[in-house]
Amino acid sequence: MKTITIATRASDLALWQAYHVRDRIEKAFPNVKVELNKITSNGDKVLDKPLALIGGKGHFTKELEDEMLAGNADIAVHSLKDVPSYMPEGLELAAITERQDQSDVFLSHKYESFHALPEGAVVGTTSLRRRMQLLSVRPDLKVKDLRGNVNTRLRKLAEGQYDAIILAFIGLNRLDLLKDIPFTEKLPLSIMIPPMGQGALGIQIKSDDNEVREIVQVLNHEDTFLASTIERDFISVIGAGCSAPVAVNVTIDEADMVTIKAMIGYPDGSKILEEQVAASRKSCESLGLLLAKLMIDKGAMKILKKAETMAFKDDAPAERI
Question: What's the pLDDT tens digit per position in 56-71?
C-alpha cells in the first residue's frame, strides 16, 4: 500500500480541506493511504497586525512548501486564494478542485443586511480587496481590521466589537458556522468581486513526482483549472499579493464564452479602476495577460503603488507612517 502525506495548516478550515482531499483520494485509490502533516503557518502565528503590514507573500503557504521540499510531505492542500502566482522551484500546482460558492458574506448580530447598516457603522475585515469595495459603495462606513481564526472573528462580532464583518461564505458553510449568526447575506458580484481562486482548493506537488501527479488528477476540475489559471496569469503580471486591493474573477458561460473582470483601487475606495475582457474558450488562454496589460496601460501600477502607502495607515507602526 502506498502512503501519501499531505502538508496542511492546522486551522479548523484547513483540516476540513485536507480531510476532504484525503477522503477523495482514498476512495478513488483503495491501495493508497493518506496521512496528514499538520503545520502552523506564519499567517496563523502573526495575529496582531494586518497581513498587508507583515511583508512578503505566501503567508499561509511557505511552511507547507518547505515541508514538501524537505521530503516531509508529498502534496500540500491550500485554499487557492492563498497561493502566490510565483511557485518555488521544484513545486507545481497539479490540480485545482471544482470551485464552490465564491461569495463573500455579510454577518451581523444587529443589522439584517449590508444596506441596512447605519452611517458610520463599524465593519470588520482584514482584506484590502474587501475594504476597497465596501468603501467604494459605502464611504460612510468605518472599516476596522479583523484578524484571528474564523471562530475568533465570530466571537469578536458576537461581543459587539463590530456592527458587521465580511468573510468568505464557503469556509463558514464548510464548518457549519452560519447557523449561529442572526443576520447573513451573500454579497453579489456587483458589490464584492472575489479574489483569485476563492472557493477552490489548490493541490501542490513536487514536480518530479509523476506518480503523485497522476493520483491527484482525480481532484482536478477542468473549468476551474482554466478559470483559475487565467486569474493567476493576471495576478502574476500585475504583481499583486493576496493582501493587495485587487479583485479578479473569471466566469465561463453556457456558450463557452470566458470573461475575466478585475478591479484595482485605493483601500479607501476613492479611486477605482475596473475592466473586463472576454473571448471564446478556444482563444481564451491569454485573457489574463491581456487584461493585465490593458489595466497597466490605464495606470494600474501607479494605483497599486499609491494603495500600498495607504494600506492600513491607522494600524501601521509609527516609523512607517
Answer: 455 679 999 999 999 9
